[in-house]
Structures are given as structure tokens and as C-alpha cells.
Amino acid sequence: MPLERLDHYFVYASDLEVSRRFYNDVLGLETGPRPDFDFPGYWFYLEDRPVVHIGTDKFEGGYVGPDGKRVISGPTGAVDHIAFRGNAIDDFIARFERLNVSYQRREVPDFRLSQLFVKDPEGLTIELNFFHS
User: Fold this and answer.
1) Are the C-beta atoms of 39 and 4 separated by less than 8 Å?
2) Sheet harboring 81-85: ordered strands across?
3) Contacts 24+ apart (CB under 8 A), 101-106
4) Per-residue pLDDT, 69
5) 43-68 pLDDT, tens per residue?
6) For 41, which of 12, 55, 57, 77 could close a Cys bridge (C-beta 3.0–4.6 Å)?
7) What pLDDT sits at residue 39?
8) What are the phi and psi torsion angles at 93 (to 5°)?
9) Reduced 3-state DSSP string for 7-33
10) Cα distance between residue 79 and residue 47, in whole Å
11) Cα(68)–Cα(116) distance, rounded to whole angstroms?
């Protein structure tokens, strides 16, 4: 069975409201419905899909295994960055500058691609890709 697409990523947020504002106001994702888990958090939607999940680092419950017992996932390793495809690069640059968000721009001429890089409140790099026709 082949993979179909990336579903979502999860970020432990040391301050839920700071991270919520980043994903809402800086990236422009919509806050949407989330199951009633036993720890606080938010789900952020893109095209009616919850693509980013954030929760507190106080999540100690782990996950429920097939036998109904709690399973702790353990260390999750290192992730360098997460990427989104976007359009209207000038709108993002204006938003970043208006909100005083630091960003880096990179051009990849061979692919007719402009990229913007920003850090979320936990230090995760978010890459935004803008392909030119």
C-alpha cells in the first residue's frame, strides 16, 4: 500500500497562545475542530485538512495501544524543517514585515522557485515555496 500524502505534523508548544498566533497570524492557517484529547492544544487547517497540530509539553498520557494500554512514544528525533507550497510571495513578505517576523529569502533559478524561511516559536524552520510559471 503506497503512501498518499503527508497528513500533518505535531509541535510541542511551550506557550500554546504564542504558537497559536504564529500559525494563525504569521502563516495564515485556520484554527479548526480538534478531538477532546486529555491535553490542551490546537489543530490548524489548510484546504479543509488539519495539517499542523500543536500541544503542550505537559502531554504525559502517551497513545493508546491496540490492547488499550498507554504507550509512551519516547524521543521523536530531530526535524530540520517543514515545507508548504504557497502563492502570493509578496503578501507573505508584507505580512512578515508588518508583524516584525524575521525571514530569509532564497532563489532557486533552475526550478523557477522562490523560498521564504521563518522560525516558529519553538525554533522549527518553516519553508514556504513559491514556484513561478
Assistant:
1) no
2) 81-85, 125-131, 113-119, 104-108
3) 101/26
4) 67
5) 999 999 999 999 986 655 556 667 76
6) 55
7) 84
8) -60, -45
9) CCEEEEECCHHHHHHHHHHHCCCEEEC
10) 24
11) 43
Q: What is the mean pLDDT of residues 117-122?
A: 95
CA distances to 11, 17, 69, 105 from 121, in Å: 10, 10, 33, 19
pTM given for the model: 0.84
Question: Cell for 81?
Answer: 524543517
What's the gap between Cα 128 and its chain centre?
A: 11
Q: How far apart are CA 101 and CA 104, in angstroms?
A: 10
All three cell numbers of 89:
510571495
Mean pLDDT (the chain) is: 89
